[in-house]
Write a structure and sequence with these properties.
This protein is of the alpha/beta class. It is about 40% helix and about 15% strand.
């Protein structure tokens, strides 16, 4: 029945080409194809499954809600499920971090959150220009694509992508130029041609861009620049939020407080579609209905999101475990890079988002294929697909983590020959 996919599904499909099997069920950090073969999942739904597949307590909360005929579709109506999520966000996320944010529910995906954030920044400031960064990725709709770096994805828009200007991400110029020298000069020079920006949008760790990690001091300097020039700071935490880098928010390591934060993927806990825009209260200048979406009230996702916050974010256990597991991954990847110096491999990452960056993108592709053949799911990232990207579930057991790293070690050794 594999032919059915080729016959009826669009050519735009991609992940299934990398993993050409039919998956049937999944539990924790394992997926199973229809023939019963097990695959360790170091992909985690592109970051949407930080707590693994079908986490039992999240599943039970969802089933109980559905079985009692809880509201499934609610637009932006008040529901008990939404109230419980807002209360959990305030208690378990905002209050412990001293954050004061309003919560906006856009459409249910990351790019919806980014589009809403860009629109709001322009509305608040009355300016059009947005500053983005090299190798950034923010989504596939037009506004999000305008602040995305990847040429192939931008090309799919079919029209000019305007009102956005890229700046060098941290270490883009190999440390040869002081941080923000170019950006500051353009802002100060009335002849530079740079329109006064409404906002800067940044990922603290660029996932699709190749696991490029911004230093805390770079992020602090960026936040200071934005404040001095009256520019709003938007952090896109769609993939790296919800504990992926350790703390709940990836920007916590820098001690900054963005004006606007975009969340999606694992905020729903169970892999159900959900996105949030967090904004400082004084920025909440929307008129009722000025930005909306039919599925912004995905109540089943509210239920699993609430339970995930109650289960994983009432103490510091998960961040501590993520840090420990991250050290294990870093050690294994460093050993791989040292053993295969001829491949010129760079190790990048933070928390449980890691990458092996190869000088030759073909080698990265071979590693991903070799890992799949051995029962491990990883993907490539980076402008040319030169990075083998690892994002296991935060809840993965140490034995399964070790098993996956052994498979990766073998896959790199095989690709090196």
């Amino acid at each position: 029945m594999m032919n059915l996919f080729a016959d009826l599904e669009s050519e735009v499909r991609s992940y299934c080409r990398t993993w050409p099997v039919v998956f049937d069920h999944a539990v924790g950090s394992r997926m199973y194809d229809e023939n019963g073969r097990s695959y360790l999942d170091f992909f985690a739904g592109a970051g949407a499954l930080n707590y693994g597949h079908n986490q039992p307590e999240l599943k039970r909360a969802l089933l109980e809600y559905l079985e009692r005929d809880g509201v499934t579709h609610g637009l932006d109506m008040h529901t008990t499920a939404k109230r419980e999520l807002l209360a959990a966000l305030r208690e378990h996320v905002f209050a412990p971090r001293g954050l004061d944010y309003k919560v906006q529910f856009p459409g249910p995906t990351g790019t919806n959150a980014v589009e809403a954030a860009l629109k709001l920044a322009r509305k608040v400031t009355g300016r059009e220009s947005i500053i983005s960064f090299t190798h950034g990725f923010h989504g596939m709709t037009l506004g999000s694509l305008s602040v995305t770096g990847n040429a192939m994805k931008r090309g799919g828009a079919g029209i000019p992508l305007v009102h956005a200007t890229p700046m060098p991400f941290d270490n883009y110029l190999d440390g040869q130029v002081p941080d923000f020298l170019w950006f500051e000069r353009l802002l100060a020079d009335s002849g530079s041609g740079l329109n006064a920006p409404a906002a800067v949008i940044v990922e603290t760790v660029q996932g699709e861009g190749g696991i490029n990690v911004a230093r805390p001091e770079w992020l602090r300097a960026l936040a200071d620049l934005c404040k001095r020039h009256d520019i709003l700071l938007i952090v896109d935490d769609v993939q790296m939020g919800c504990g992926r880098t350790g703390p709940f928010f990836s920007f916590e390591v820098a001690g900054i407080e963005p004006d606007i934060v975009c969340l999606s993927k694992s905020i729903g806990g169970y892999g159900l579609p959900l996105a949030l825009v967090l904004l400082r209260p004084e920025l909440d200048v929307w008129s009722p209905g000025e930005h909306n979406g039919t599925f912004r009230g995905n109540n089943p996702a509210f239920v699993t999101a609430t339970r995930a916050l109650e289960l994983f974010w009432t103490d510091d256990l998960l961040p501590a475990q993520t840090a420990t597991k991250g050290e294990v991954v870093e050690s294994a990847l460093t050993a791989i890079a040292s053993k295969h110096a001829e491949l010129d491999i760079a190790v990048r990452g933070r928390g449980l988002a890691w990458g092996l960056a190869f000088a030759d993108a073909d080698v990265a592709a071979k590693v991903v294929t070799g890992a799949f053949d051995r029962g491990l799911l990883i993907e490539t990232a980076g402008a040319d697909g030169e990075v083998a990207k690892l994002m296991p579930a935060l809840t993965i057991g140490h034995d399964e983590l070790g098993e996956g790293l052994e498979i990766l070690t073998d896959a790199v050794a095989d690709a090196a020959h």
